[in-house]
Amino acid sequence: MLNTFRSISLSYKTAPLQVRDLIALNEEEARRFMLRLRDFFALTDLLVISTCNRTEVYYAVDPASAETDISTEITRLLLIEKGLTDTAAYLPYFDVFSTHETAVRHLFEVCTGLHSQVVGDMQIPNQVKQSYQWSADLDMAGPFLHRLMHTIFFTNKRVAQETSFRDGAASVSYAAVELIDELMSVQVTPNILVVGLGEIGTDVFRNLDARKLGNLTLINRTRSKAEALAEGTEYRVADWADLTSEIQQADVIISSVQRDEPLITLQLLKNLNVLTYKYFVDLSVPRSIDAAVEQIPGVLVYNIDHIQSRADEALNRRLAAVPQVESIISQAVAEFGDWSKEMMVSPTINKLKNALEQIRRDEIARHIKHLTPDESEKIDRITKGIMQKIIKLPVLQLKAACKRGEAETLIDVLNDLFDLENQTADEPKRFF
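== Glutamyl-tRNA reductase ==
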C-alpha cells in the first residue's frame, strides 16, 4: 500500500522572526532531530527543511497507522529539542498538512519559491537539496522520497526554462547585489564594505556571501553583531571608528544605517582619493549617504529608489508568471500522483508475474527431458512471449484502475485467483 505523506510547517506567514529564530535548526540539530524521529516514530521517508524563513518536517506513514496523526507529537518533539518546554504556547504557529495530496503539493510549491518571502527565491532549491542530502546520508529517504524529490528538481528546471519566474532580483537586498555584480564585472575580487547590519544589511551580506563576489568587510555600531555574522568565514570586521579609512580601501560601499541625518557626507570624505571609480549603494530610508558626495570625481551613488525600481520590475515579472508556474506544478503533481498510485499495485504485479512464470517453468520441466537443446530453447522463447502477452492486459488494467482509484478491487480478484497473498514478490510459489 502507498505510504501517506504529511507535513508540519512554521514559516514567516505563521510566525514572527523571533519565533522562527528560536525554532530554526542548523545542520547538526536537523540531523539529530531526524534520528530522534526515526527512533520515536519508526519513520522512513523523512525530510527536514530549515531556513531563515521556515522550518518544516515532511514524513510518510504507513496507511495502516494513517488514522493516527502524529503531527502534533512531532511538533512537540521539535520544540523540546530546541529547549522550548512550554510547547502549547508555540503550537499555534505551525500549519499542519494532514493529507497526502496537500503535503505533496505544499512541498512542490515551497521548493519552486511560490511560498518564499521573496517570490521565486532562487536560494530555496539549493536549501532543499541540502536537506534531501541529510535524508539520504541518514538512510531516511526511500523510493517514495527519492522519486518525489527528483520530480521536484525536474519541475524546478521547467520553471526556470519555461517561465520568467526566476528572472531578475525581486528583493531590495538581492537587487543591490545584482547591481554590484554588474558594476564589478571587470574586477575579479573587488573590496566591498557593508555598513550597518540590520535586516537589510544582513540580507545583503548573505547574498554577497552566496555569490562570492569579492572581499567583504563588515562594519556595525555593535561590533559583536558583525563578528557573529563573519564567524566561520574569511571576511573582515572593522571598527566603527575606522569607517573613513575603510571607505578609502573599498571599491563598493553599501550602507543601510538607520539615522535621521546622512552618515556619509562630503565632509567625511573630504580627503578621499579615488583612483578609478568608487560606488556607493544607499539602502537606507532616510538616506544615509548624502547625494552631494557625487561631486567627488569618480564617485557614483545609487539610492534606494533606483534599487527598488529594479526589484519592482523583477517582482512584477515573477508575479505575472505565477499562473504558469502553478500549471507546471499541477502537471508534475498529477504525474507523480499516478506514479505513487502505481506503487500500490507493483507488489501485486510482481507476484502475478512470478506466479505465471512458475506455471510456465513447471510445464516446461514436464517435457524438457524429451526435447533437444534447440527445441528447449524455442519452447522457452515461445512460452515467455505467451506469458508476456497474457500479463500485459492485467497490468494495463491495474494501472488504469489506479488512476480511477479502483485498484483495490482488481488486486483482491487477482489475489483470490492466484493465491498471491501466500507468495512474496520475489519468490515464486509452486501451484502443482
